[in-house]
Amino acid sequence: MFSRRGKDQDKRQTPKYTCVVSLTEYRRRIDALNSEDLRSLCKRLQITTKEEVNSKHGTSIKAELEPETFKPNLKEPSELLEADQIEKLARNLPPRTIGYPWTLAFGTSKNGMSIKTLYRVMQGQDTPVLLVIKDSDGQVFGALASEPFKVSDGFYGTGETFLFTFNPEFQVYKWTGDNMFFIKGDMDSLAFGGGSGEFGLWLDGDLYHGRSHSCKTFGNPMLSKKEDFFVQDIEVWAFE
Predict the structure, then answer these.
(1) Of 33, 148, 205, 209, which is most buried, counting CB atoms within 10 Å of its CB?
(2) Which residues on neighbouring strands pair with residue 186, listed in sequence order?
(3) Rounded to two decimals, what is the model's pTM?
(4) 132 pLDDT tier (thresholds 50, 70, 90)
(5) Which one-letter DSSP state was computed for residue 33?
């Protein structure tokens, strides 16, 4: 005679779990791997980062939001972005930024043209940051960085990072998955994207001279009219 408990146990199936790990643990596990090995490992171990969880639900979350959600509150007006441009950018920001006011963390009009000053003001930030550039041709473009800018030995950041341009019309270029060359900073430059020796977007230490080129990280074309450009103004917005 078999007990009911035994029968129930026989009917049970082993549940399947997806392991959600912190970004720090995720980076520790894959630090020495290239992108191809990373995709294979993640598939085999069913590792999901918190950012990927947000990304998977991002579309459904945004679809349920009211249009007013994408009219963010700016603590002070932007000198570089028009209202419709702000709304277009807001619709592409990571879900974790939704509902937070935009704060102007850095602006060349008030902080000057210095990458050292940029890094200094970034030390107090812990949110993604939006870099907006207006060049001497009047073109507006930039990048969304998954974390504040800092001096780094190598590339850092996550797949939330993207490049954008309003020239000739608004386009966003998100992570292709080809590599993990998101953001790199040193005292002489700030760069986004890479592959084949070219950066998607690059600024010098004076925040005056820049360069844009197609890159594998984001699959973007040149963001500016010319590969080499001169900066007229820069704004960096945080979400807090």
Answers:
(1) 148
(2) 189
(3) 0.74
(4) very high
(5) -
What the block records as the tokens of 237 is 């917005």
Q: Rounded to whole angstroms, how far apart are CA atoms 136 and 147?
A: 27
Q: What is the DSSP letter of 100?
A: P
Q: In angstroms, rounded to a whole number, what is the distance separating the alpha carbons of residues 21 and 42?
A: 11
Tokens describing residue 53: 């969880």
Token code pair at residue 159: 């797949």
* Helix-, strand-, coil-residue percentages of the chain, each rounded to 5: 30, 25, 45
Which residue carries 């990373």 as its tokens? 38
- Cα separation values, 61 from 54, 55, 68, 71, Å: 9, 10, 14, 16
The vertex-64 CA angle with 61 and 65, nearest 5°, equals: 90
Alpha helix locations (H) across the chain?
Answer: 4-11, 23-30, 35-45, 50-64, 83-90, 108-111, 115-122
Half-sphere exposure of 165 (CA within 13 A, CB side): 19
Question: How far is residue 5's CA from residue 8's CA, in Å, rounded to a whole number?
Answer: 5
What's the average model confidence in pLDDT over 127-148? 98
For residues 217 and 195, the answer to whether their CB atoms sit within 8 Å is yes
Which helix H or strand E contains 76, and what residues bound it? none
